[in-house]
Amino acid sequence: MIRRFLLGPCLFAAPWVKHPNRLIRRSAQIIVVGSALIWLAFSRPGGAGRDARGEDDEVVDRLTSSPQLYEFLHGPAVTLPIVGPICRTLVLRLSVAARRRERGSTDERNFSLRLTGPIDQSALRNLLVWQNRVLPAYLRPMDTRQVDVVLVLPDGSNDETRLFDLFSVALMLERFRGISVFWGEVAAAEAASKVMSDRELRRRSACESADDIGRMPAEVTGQVELCGAGGGIKLLPQGRRYTNDFLKAALPGKFIIAAGLRERRDGTVEPDDLEFWLGLIDRLHVQHPGVAFVMLNRLAPSQWRDWPAHLRFARHQGLTLQDSICCAQIADGFVGVLDILGLAAHSAGRPGVYVPLHDAGVPRAGLSIAQPSARQIMVGGRDRTRIETALVAFAAVLASAQEGSTRD
Length: 408
What we know:
The protein is an alpha/beta fold. It folds into three domains: 2-106, no CATH class; 109-216; 237-403, Rossmann fold, CATH 3.40.50.2000. Helices cover 50% and strands 11% of the residues. The protein has 15 helices and nine strands. It has helices at 2-13, 22-42, 55-64, 67-74, 83-107, 121-138, 160-170, 185-195, 198-205, 218-227, 237-250, 271-287, 321-330, 340-347, 384-403, and strands spanning 110-114, 147-153, 176-183, 255-260, 291-295, 311-313, 333-337, 352-355, 376-378. The strands form two sheets. It has a six-stranded parallel β-sheet, sandwiched between helices. A three-stranded parallel β-sheet has the order 1-2-3. Helix 7 links the parallel strand 2 (147-153) and strand 3 (176-183). Helix 1 runs parallel beside helix 3. The two termini are 42 Å apart. 38% of the residues are buried.
């Protein structure tokens, strides 16, 4: 705060250091030199690496790039033998301190992840799990800055469709500023010194299991399977608009429930899971004719058939994965698994039935699926009897949910 208080007048005075009026020129020079001296006096040695680059350093960048100050520092001014060298030294110290803080900040914002296995439904979900559950352990408390991620994929992982899905999910995560992808440890090691910080290189050599989004430990994913992710996904304005246009055109005036099911490795829905949920969806529609469903998964060509009027498939009607995630966030309800789609819906507070992507075992005490007032029913396991019971409980509160639903 004090640095910004001092650098503000310094930046204000910089354009006047070459003013024709001697009084104005000398005053501006004194402000520049005096502010820099006091600023450096308050800078702790060695503290640059710990301080985050912020507004102070942006002011320093603007000051050191000032054409008037540059002309003064290198011009033939009368006082150049006295003031000029002093100003050059102080401004250089300011710039170096800002760059050191930038390096320290970057050192804390570069992370390396591995994927041992295919780019599948679990891996896409685990990107969000890593952001919300693992990343905070590497940063200081209350540090909400964005980070850059280097992702190392297995050699031969060249499924372009799933790679596109990976980038689509990464770009919707609130804490991800950028993501780089390398195939194989050799390629990643060759580029490591260029794209990773020294601190991250040490982290990477430690081979933390929590940094493998293909085999994330059960203690990390267990809470997510039972309780949801707790946010971390952007609602893209463009995706929101596309989704609203789609829902209004395809299912006008309906109470929309998004559905997300388990997928096969190629990203298409599992046939057995599809048949099971189609039966539940038909039964729920019979009880509530004003309800319509939007399936967010892709179908394989062999799975296509004539579908009832109350069911639409978003990915086959022009919506991308990002649009489908936005659809899960703004639909009136959600039923299905806690993958990236289900976690987006749960984080947005959508009422519905949420089933673990993988069987989490016996649900914890207090996670009852029979609470008649529960808007978000966490099944806690993949037993189909429990899922059917959860749908019955959800149907009991669906009428009140329909009454309170509004669409932009």
